[in-house]
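Researcher: Sequence recovery benchmark, item below. Answer with residues only.
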């Protein structure tokens, strides 16, 4: 990690951008834990668990803030220009996240690689996509949308990365998904099961119920059991071990 006084503005802001992103994520998690504690009500064990997690999140947040402090102090000692890009198609570059043309809901991407650049240098890089309120010298229409400006190339590269990320997410989601053997939604009497994990858990529950309630099985439960076995096997998941573990667990509990 770079030092403070010996580092360039860009190097410092790259570090701060990462630290602030991680701190923001922890802030959301801390808020969620406070909400969870408030909802737990009369479940002391759950409240205790949530408070332990909350304490860990707060400690991590405080550590990140402490790590960022010397870099923030250095910025205060020798402030430099910073630039922020609005995250939408054709979004403009601003000198801060408080431009009058933006809203409280506007999402920004920090551009630390341009930190300390002059207005002229930034406008030369982003052209017509520089905000004319923040930067009066920015052109308004020249070259807009022709794909030749640096921001257009940057956006294309960024879009390619996001397309790859979306493809990876879709592939991961598809790998977790499950359907009935005929490709239709996998339905049981309790609803549609959309993932292999959910189907496997439901099969385990049904196998345990066969031990707990041997004389109460219904034709619907048997049909669900057979449907789950077929769907999971078709998805490449061996069901015999799942059934065996569930049966052994229920048998052990019944023997207590």
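Model:
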């Amino acid at each position: 990690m770079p030092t403070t006084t010996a580092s360039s503005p860009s190097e410092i802001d790259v570090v701060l951008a990462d630290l602030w992103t991680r701190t923001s994520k922890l802030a959301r998690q801390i808020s969620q834990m406070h909400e969870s504690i408030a909802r737990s009500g009369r479940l002391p064990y759950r409240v205790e668990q949530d408070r332990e997690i909350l304490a860990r999140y707060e400690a991590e947040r405080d550590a990140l803030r402490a790590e960022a402090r010397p870099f923030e102090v250095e910025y205060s000692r020798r402030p430099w220009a910073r630039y922020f890009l609005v995250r939408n198609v054709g979004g403009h570059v601003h000198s801060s996240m408080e431009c009058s043309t933006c809203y409280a809901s506007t999402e920004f991407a920090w551009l630390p690689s341009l930190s300390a650049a002059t207005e002229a240098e930034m406008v030369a890089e982003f052209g017509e996509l520089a905000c004319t309120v923040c930067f009066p010298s920015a052109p308004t229409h020249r070259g807009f949308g022709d794909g030749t400006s640096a921001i257009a190339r940057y956006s294309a590269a960024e879009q390619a990365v996001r397309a790859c990320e979306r493809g990876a997410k879709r592939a991961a989601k598809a790998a977790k998904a499950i359907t009935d053997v005929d490709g239709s939604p996998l339905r049981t009497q309790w609803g549609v099961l959309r993932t292999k994990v959910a189907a496997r858990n439901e099969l385990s529950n049904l196998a345990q119920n066969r031990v707990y309630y041997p004389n109460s099985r219904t034709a619907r439960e048997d049909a669900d059991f057979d449907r789950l076995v077929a769907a999971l096997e078709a998805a490449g998941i061996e069901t015999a071990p799942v059934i065996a573990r569930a049966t052994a667990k229920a048998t052990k509990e019944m023997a207590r």
